[in-house]
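Per your request, structure below.
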């Protein structure tokens, strides 16, 4: 298997387990859903970080591209691999669970969801860039824990506002499984792309010597 194929398959596997954990935890109303989601992201990052960088999130891939740590030739294949992993997780979720999407966001809830998804997608991508790509943290042993706990913290803080996706692949998966209405997906994707771009730009501004 080529190095490129290894990276793309790793992204697919990690995204699958992240999205399926989200779908299963939310569908079963697991009390420890934020911890479980953060934990599975952490272990999948430790499992695949040495192969692909373990993005498992198109917004993180966009941030890594803006920051200069993902080649333009890899950006689209990474995102496609992540969305395939999300789709497979959603198909399994559709078979296992019977969900009904809530109403779409309107008015103030829509604005609140947009704001918190931008903020915590930024936080997630910003943490990834600083702990997993910075020259000041070579071969560190804490990056997976830091990234996983960023997601867990965001899920606790704003899960009741937006569903705490912070990830276009997660947003796609929960839409497919009717945990979120399709009418809301543009809010997720717009906010998450903005958050990823802002994280990449911010990292470069604060670390001008870290090319």
């Amino acid at each position: 298997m080529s190095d490129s194929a290894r990276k793309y398959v790793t992204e697919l596997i990690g995204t699958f387990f992240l999205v399926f954990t989200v779908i299963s935890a939310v569908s079963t109303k697991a009390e420890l859903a934020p911890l479980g989601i953060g934990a599975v992201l952490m272990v999948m990052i430790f499992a695949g970080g040495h192969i692909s960088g373990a993005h498992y999130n198109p917004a993180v891939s966009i941030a890594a591209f803006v920051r200069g740590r993902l080649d333009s030739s890899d950006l689209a294949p990474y995102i496609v691999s992540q969305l395939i992993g999300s789709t497979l997780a959603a198909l399994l979720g559709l078979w296992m669970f019977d969900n009904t999407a809530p109403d779409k966001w309107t008015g103030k809830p829509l604005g609140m969801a947009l704001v918190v998804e931008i903020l915590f997608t930024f936080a997630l991508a910003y943490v990834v860039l600083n702990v997993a790509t910075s020259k000041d943290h070579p071969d560190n042993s804490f990056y997976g824990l830091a990234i996983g706990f960023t997601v867990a913290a965001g899920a606790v803080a704003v899960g009741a506002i937006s569903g705490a996706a912070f990830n276009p692949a997660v947003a796609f998966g929960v839409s497919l499984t009717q945990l979120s209405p399709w009418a809301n997906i543009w809010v997720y994707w717009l906010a998450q792309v903005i958050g990823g771009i802002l994280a990449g730009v911010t990292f470069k501004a604060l670390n001008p010597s870290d090319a």
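The first helix runs from residue 3 to 27.

Regards,
D.
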